[in-house]
Amino acid sequence: MTPDRTGRPARRRRYPLSLRRHPVSWEDQRPTWRDARPALIAEALKRAQARPSGNWYVVGATRDVREDRPLARTVAGLEVVVWRDGEGRLVAGPGVCPHLGAPLRDSPVRCGTLMCRWHGLALSGTPFAGWEPLPVHDDGVLVWVRLDEVGGERPLEAPVVPARPALSGAVSAVYVGVGICEPEDVVANRLDPWHGAWFHPYSFVDLTVVTPGEAVTPGEGVAPGEGETEGVETGSDEAEGAETGGGFAVDVSFKIAGRLVVPVRAVFTAPEPRTVVMRIAEGEGRGSVVETHATPLGPDGRGRPRTAVVEAVLASSDRRGFAVARAMAPVLRPLMRAAAGRLWRDDLAYAERRRHLRSTGRFPG
After folding, report:
1. Whether the model pTM is above 0.85
2. Cβ pair 8, 244 in contact under 8 A
3. Cα separation of 98 and 234, whole Å?
4. DSSP letter string, 33-101
5. How far, rounded to the nearest angstrom, does the alpha carbon of residue 239 sit from its chain's CA centroid?
6. Residue 12 burial by CB count (10 A; 0-12/13-18/19+): exposed, middle or buried?
7. Most C-beta atoms within 10 A of its C-beta, which of 117, 165, 237, 295?
8. Mean pLDDT of 115-143
C-alpha cells in the first residue's frame, strides 16, 4: 500500500473507478512533442537492441497449439511448425518437409505425430529423415522458438520472459497482428508513451511521462491546468519498473466511459530487443502486464519487411470481486483482444509509416 504525503499508509479506495474532476478536451491537453524527444526514444531503442535475446522468437499463443494441427509461423523467412507430441510435450522444427519440400503447416497432427499430406512422412518430434527439431519454450501464455541461424547471438537455454502475475490468479489474452515494418518500428512505437493520450484518446487520458532519474512523489504527474483525476494512487515503485534499467514511468488514466476512468502508474521497460513490457506499478490492477513482442516474418511479395505483433495481456487484481472476472475469462478474452486490436490498428499504421520514411531516408528521428 503506497504511503500518502504524510508518510501514513494510503487508505485503499473502495471502488476501482474514479471520476475526472476537471476533464479537458483533446485539443486542449498539454502538447507532448517537446518531451518526446527523438534522441530520447532512439536511445531507449538502442538500449533495447543491445540486450540479449538468446535467439528466441515468439511464434504465437500457447492456446493456439491445438491437438489436430500445428501452430505455423514464418520467422525471418524460415517456416516453423509447433505441435505437441504423444506425451503432450511441445516440439518445434522446420515447416518444410525434408522429402520434397511440402508445407508442413497444412499437415494434420494425429496422436502427437505430424503427418505430411504430400507423401505421409510422419514426424514425432525427434530427428528423422533429415528433419531436425528446434529448441522450443512454452511459458504458459506464449510459445517461443530458438533460431540460432537467424539470431546469431550466443544461445540462451530459455527466453527472457518478463515477470508476470501468477497465471492462476490472472486473466490472459493474446492479440496477433501483422504490419509492413520491422521489429524496431514496433519497439520504437512502444518506447514512445507520450503519444498515448493524443493518438488513442478513446483509451487514455491525463497522461504524463515521468522520465528516469526524476524525483517523483505520490500524487504528482498531472500538470497544472490539465485534467485531474480523483483518487489517483501513484508514487514509490519506479524501482519495480526499472528492473532492466532505462524504463519510462507513466501516470495515465484508462478511459472507461464518459468521465469514468481507472488511474494508474505504468512503467515501460524493454527486457530484450523485440519485447516491450508495460507493467502497472501503482493503482488498480497492480502487477498486471502488457507484453508486446515483435517477430520478423520475412518480406512480402513486393520485398517489404513484415513483422508480427504478438501482444499478451495478463490482468490481475487482489480485489475479491476479481474472482468473477477469472470465471468469465472465456467471455473477456475476445473483448481484450478487440481492445488491443483497436490500439494496434492505429499503432501499426504509424510503425509502417516509420519504416517507409526510414527506407527512403526521410525519417526525421
Report:
1. yes
2. no
3. 56
4. TTTS-HHHHHHHHHHHHHS--TTEEEEEEGGG--SSS-EEEEETTEEEEEEE-TTS-EEEEESB-TTT-
5. 20
6. exposed
7. 295
8. 97
